[in-house]
Amino acid sequence: MALAPTASGALPDDGLAATPPMGWNSWNTFGCNINEQLIRETADAIVASGMRDAGYRYVNIDDCWAEPERNAEGELEPHHERFPSGIKAMADYVHGKGLKLGIYTSAGTRTCADTMPGALGHEEVDARTFAEWEVDFLKYDNCNNQGVPATERYAAMGDALRATGRPIVYSVCEWGENAPWEWAPDVGAHLWRTTDDIKPAWDTGNSDGFPMGVVNIIEANGKLAEHAGPGDWNDPDMLEVGVHDVEGYPGLTDTEAVAHFSMWSIMAAPLIAGNDVREMPENVKQILTNREVIAVNQDAAGKQGAPVRDDGDQEVWVKELADGSRAVALFNRGGEAATIATTAEEIGAKQAGRYVLRDLWAHTDTETGGEISAEVPSHGVALLRVTPKR
Question: Which of 93, 156, 256, 304 is the most buried (most CB within 10 A)?
Answer without folding.
Answer: 256
